[in-house]
Amino acid sequence: MADSFDAIVIGGGPGGYNVAIRLGQLGLTAACIDKRGAFGGTCLNIGCIPSKALLHASERFHEAETDFAKLGIKAKVELDLPAMMAQKTKVVGELTKGVEFLFKKNKVEGIIGEAKITAAPSNGNLGKIEVKLPDGKTRSLTAKNIIIATGSDVAPLPGVTVDEKQIVSSTGALTLGAVPKKLLVVGAGVIGLELGSVWKRLGAEVTVVEFLDRVTPGIDLEVSKAFQRILTKQGFTFQLSTKVTGVEKTKTGLKVTVEPAAGGDKSVIECDVMLVAIGRIPYTANLGLAEVGVALDKRGRVITDTHFRTNVAGIYAIGDCREGPMLAHKAEEEAVACAENIAGKAGHVNYDAIPSVVYTFPEVATVGKNEEDLKAAGVKYKIGKFPFTANARAKTIAATDGFVKILADAETDKVLGCAIVGPEAGNLIAEVVLAIEFGASSEDIARTCHSHPTLTEAVRQAAMGVEGWTMQM
């Protein structure tokens, strides 16, 4: 085993393992260090992948339980939660092994341990990293370049202690041993609504408390309101503009005290389990960053330039630990660009073409600018919308909630953004992501032939609607 590399990556999540693999592909020696014990980061081990496995399984269960009869299918359905959890674990294990295979294929050394930077690369000297190994020993490594890809951690709720049994983070919500009768979700963002959907489908009563006055803060306001109406119709209960001020454990569960965000009378919500999902914070602790002079912003994120360089020469940062949306695919894009920059190539990320998806049913997907962004920037724009109630394929699969909304520049017709709430939104958005990446116009989408009958026609019809020539009913 070598102890000196062209680059050492701290963090083995989607950003970390991808930057290491890309460095290997470009002919550079690389090592990737992660303290979890399995590569893949939060996303693969306790985030994106296990949550999507449970979302898929719970959606199939709910569909069989409630919708099969409408299609002329008679079925008796019974939940086997241990088997559902076992399937989730199996998927995670397979994908973790896939990362290890790619390391070997691209000559990347994967190291399990806790890394700390002890010296920055400078004046021709190599950077130094000490790795505390699982057996308690220490391994000293050197590198020309150091890449921080340590991701993020669960944001704590002041005054509330997460025990991962009754009061859980997303981690505990993915491993509950039984379906709670009443689940209280604190936070109406992506994580809270996805995991709330899992347990709602499996039989829990779900109440969502959100400090702000809307669900999914940051996405198109019209889409956010429509999404909340759909979830309410599914049985979610929302208390918006509300904050949690205390939690009491009782013999039968939890008593959670809430009050209006602006102040006012308090009330108590009783539940079996409370999920704290108020966001995530960058993980930058115990890395030696302060000692080597790496600057952080007020939110604890590593400050970088457009080439992912920190203020300390030879040290880079990508993914959740730097600015921007905390998304696995954003980290992957930055990983490739950062590796290419280090290798002397022209790596670049177009942040207007980074999509975001909520994997509920229906899904919500967005890319580019929303109306609020464009109004704030003084950009004149046109809107094209098309409802899934008018899409033939959506009717045939009984999934007509939602719509496609495309925003285009009023003068050039360049696509500026898109929001989709509806079936397969996460897949449908890819077409618009590509359009934005290539600087296409709404007319380019509108004049591109789409197969019939497909959900993709809704995207085309929305694009046609920008100029007012939607044709389908």
Write the layout of secondary structure elements.
Blueprint: E1 4-10, H1 14-25, E2 30-34, H2 41-46, H3 48-66, H4 81-105, E3 108-112, E4 114-119, E5 127-132, E6 138-148, E7 152-154, E8 167-168, H5 170-173, E9 182-186, H6 190-201, E10 205-209, H7 221-234, E11 237-239, E12 242-249, E13 254-260, E14 267-271, E15 273-276, E16 280-282, H8 289-292, E17 315-317, H9 328-342, E18 356-358, E19 363-368, H10 371-377, E20 381-387, H11 392-396, E21 403-409, E22 415-422, H12 425-437, H13 442-446, H14 456-466
3D architecture notes:
The chain folds into three domains: 4-153 and 281-349, FAD/NAD(P)-binding domain (3-Layer(bba) Sandwich); 167-278, FAD/NAD(P)-binding domain (3-Layer(bba) Sandwich); 353-466, FAD/NAD-linked reductase, C-terminal dimerisation domain (Enolase-like, domain 1), CATH 3.30.390. It has 473 residues and is an alpha/beta fold. Strands 1, 2, 3, 4, 5, 6 and 17 form a seven-stranded mixed β-sheet that branches. It has helices at residues 14-25, 41-46, 48-66, 81-105, 170-173, 190-201, 221-234, 289-292, 328-342, 371-377, 392-396, 425-437, 442-446, 456-466, and strands at 4-10, 30-34, 108-112, 114-119, 127-132, 138-148, 152-154, 167-168, 182-186, 205-209, 237-239, 242-249, 254-260, 267-271, 273-276, 280-282, 315-317, 356-358, 363-368, 381-387, 403-409, 415-422.
In short:
With 473 residues, this protein is an alpha/beta fold. Helix content is 32%, strand content 25%. The strands form five sheets. Strands 1, 2, 3, 4, 5, 6 and 17 form a seven-stranded mixed β-sheet that branches.
